[in-house]
Design goal:
Elements lengths: L2 H10 L6 H7 L29 E2 H12 L9 H7 L6 H10 L10 H17 L2 E2 L2 H4 L1
Parallel strand pairs: 1-2
């Protein structure tokens, strides 16, 4: 699974019941599943359809942050965003993410690269059905 796919599924799948919990709670209904355009690796990543509400990315991340009770600046730091999602935030992982998102600068872990990555991730989340405030995309 790509790094971005892991970010997407970590946010869009947050708080959803596992299949076992869902089947115990209510009868199973066949629902069409769609895949994100950023999808890769053979895993279906659900994203909001036209009939569903967009995922409020900011609210999800704030809830995750409150539950973890740690101080992370996910709004400005790609490293903190990845840590919040329990993803590898190493330089190697960020280089891979930079490649996935077509970053053209030096993949050296600079502040410029990391700031670009954070904004690019927010833009991609928005493009894939996430509700992201403009302040996080600019």
């Amino acid at each position: 699974m790509s790094i971005f796919s892991s970010i997407l599924s970590g946010i869009f799948g947050y708080g959803q019941a596992t299949p076992a919990q869902a089947s115990a709670a209510k009868p199973m209904r066949a629902q069409p599943r769609t895949e994100s355009p950023a999808h890769s690796g053979g895993v279906n990543i659900p994203y909001p359809s036209a009939t569903q509400s967009p995922v409020d990315v900011e609210a999800v991340l704030e809830k995750m942050l409150a539950e973890k009770k740690v101080k992370l600046d996910w709004r400005h730091s790609i490293v903190d965003l990845m840590k919040l999602l329990d993803l590898d935030s190493s330089l190697a992982a960020r280089k891979e993410l930079a490649t996935e998102l077509n970053y053209n600068g030096a993949k050296d872990g600079s502040a410029e690269m990391n700031i670009w990555l954070n904004k690019a991730v927010m833009m991609k989340l928005s493009e894939n059905g996430g509700k992201v405030p403009a302040s996080l995309k600019d």
